[in-house]
Design brief:
- The complex is a heterodimer of chains A (263) and B (340).
- Chain A has helices at 50-57, 80-85, 103-107, 122-136, 152-165, 182-197, 209-215, 238-247, 257-262; strands spanning 12-21, 24-34, 39-44, 65-70, 73-74, 88-91, 170-174, 201-205, 218-223, 226-232.
- Chain A is α/β, with parallel strands linked by helices and 263 residues long.
- Chain A folds into 2 domains: 3-87 and 168-262, Rossmann fold; 100-166, no CATH class.
- The relative contact order of chain A is 0.17.
- Chain B is mainly alpha-helical.
- Chain B has 14 helices and 4 strands.
- The longest helix of chain B has 27 residues, at 233-259.
- Classes of the chains: A alpha/beta (263), B mainly alpha (340).
- Chains A and B meet through helix 2 of A and helix 9 and helix 10 of B.
- The complex binds adenosine-5'-triphosphate and magnesium ion (MG).
- Chain B: This is ABC transporter, membrane spanning protein (Ribose).
Chain lengths: 263, 340
Amino acid sequence: MKPDAQSATPLVQMDQIEKHFGGIRAVNDVSLDLYPGEVVGVLGHNGAGKSCLMRILSGAMIPNSGTIKVNGEVADIQSPHDARDLGIETIYQTLALADHLNAPANLFLGRELKTRFGNLDDSRMMAEAVRVLKRLNPNFKNLNDPVSSLSGGQRQVVAIARAIYFDVKILIMDEPTAALGPSETAMVGSLIRQLREEGIGILLVSHDMHDVFELCDRVIVMNKGRKVGSHRIEDVTKDDVLSLIIKGDLPHDWAPRSQKAVQ
Amino acid sequence: MADLDRGAEPASWTFKLSAGSFHKLSALLTLALLIFAFSFGNAAFFSINNGLTVLLQTSVIGLLGIGMTMVIITGGIDLSVGSVLALSGTITGLSIKAGVPVAPAMAIGVMAGAACGFVNGFVITKMRITPFVATLGMMLIARGVALQLTGAAPISRLGESFGLLGNGSLFRIVEKTGGIFPKVVFPGIPYPVILLAIVAVAGAYLLRRRQIGRHIYATGSNEEAARLSGVLVDRTKIFAYVLSGALAGLAGNVLMSRLVTVQPNEGVMYELDAIAAAVIGGASLMGGVGNISGTMIGAAIIGVLRNGLNMAGVSAFIQQIVIGIIVILAVYVDQIRNRR
Ligand SMILES: Nc1ncnc2c1ncn2[C@@H]1O[C@H](COP(=O)(O)OP(=O)(O)OP(=O)(O)O)[C@@H](O)[C@H]1O
Ligand SMILES: [Mg+2]
């Protein structure tokens, strides 16, 4: 984390967010903030409510209650469109790709490049797609094929490219490396560091402890829809975090690691 | 995975055909075979005159098929086009009777069709009724309104100019001879055929080159993904249904103009021909797949079949059976290719 990060206005403040499905409380009174140039890990067991919380921020889901502030101002995010206008880009866990369209068409879906006459500028979209996809994966070929014929990892690369191509200020990554091989995962890791340097705030949902401790400045842990912990990464060990994820509690003898070191 | 499958298949396919062009090629081949077979059976079949007749007959199904293709690509279906066709013709006829000149009266008819399409789109997107049910309802409503307005009786004596759109033609060459009947050198290209060509080119342009076309494919391919990508899914769907309704209205005007009479009970089951044309042309009822050129080939196949079987003296009942089999075969061939 940049030293002055905490003193700036938070990029995002989610306050007392609630989301119910019938009797299920998918997100229960969760608050979260994110500062510029910060990577916050969002952790939790399967079904803990991580994706719901992220989808609420990206406009894909409307919360039952709670407020969201972006750059200190209340933001009324009613649709993915609204979120994008605020500079919020999302890599969805489901990837959200239109299977019958090719990679460039997916990359620019909803934000197509057009010629002077308002026609689709497919050649320019293809050229741009080649540029951004090659950066993430140098062996990316078959850009003309529908994305349904791509491998899982290639599809994930398309989804990542779509999120970073446009002017992103807040990046939500919901398990972005789940289908990636080691070298692509490393590529995403260096991408995250680079974006952090540029002052972009990143919410990273992941089950991979190694990645989380490698990349995150802070972690937030969810358990059964509630937030059970929010810690700077240097204050916790992997075991502490696992305990939070599984039991919803820290080990009883826990004290912040950074303070322990001082004692 | 698909790459592996393809790799495992040795040189039998040295050049790779995209899914769409493979289907189109096989449909074109079918069309060529049909024309060949019918010409072989009856010399009169393969003539300019009969060719134009087939095109004329195809134009109504073709117009309906273009709108239907758009709707099918969004993952929907429009069962109301046959009835909307009748209602639009009726509205045009009533407008003329009320004193409106022919051209604006036809425009009113087309707009009535578009309005029906808008209602379809609204019911589907805002009331969240499935396309099948919503357009089934509209099919009954539009037909009912058309019959109610006319008392189920045809409207005739609409004036000569009303028949122009359906019966006129361009580049007609007539040689004056001494006899009562002038000799027709070239019958001319019928207006409906020209209209179909224009609408088909415009439709293809819309689907391939415009943002709305891209969004139509995206919506049918993965509605949730399209929505998350900022596509206005509801607006896109409504657009497709409005277009389908307007084209049904246009087809209705062409058809009634050809008959020079408004028939409120015309167009029954035309929706099925339009769906068949789109499906034979490679459109998938699952959404996300389809194109105008394919649908045009599909409409031509149906037109040629009807015409050829007619000339061969095959009954209308047998024709239905044959077209039914063709529809199933077209989809079957497509599936085999996808499984390969
Ligand atoms: N659209 C929905 N309708 C009904 N229930 C839902 C819906 N979306 C999520 N849920 C429920 O909300 C809870 C939280 O789901 P969510 O997808 O946020 O979990 P998650 O933490 O992302 O899990 P995972 O690690 O498996 O991705 C689950 O119990 C799920 O069943
Ligand atoms: Mg999830």
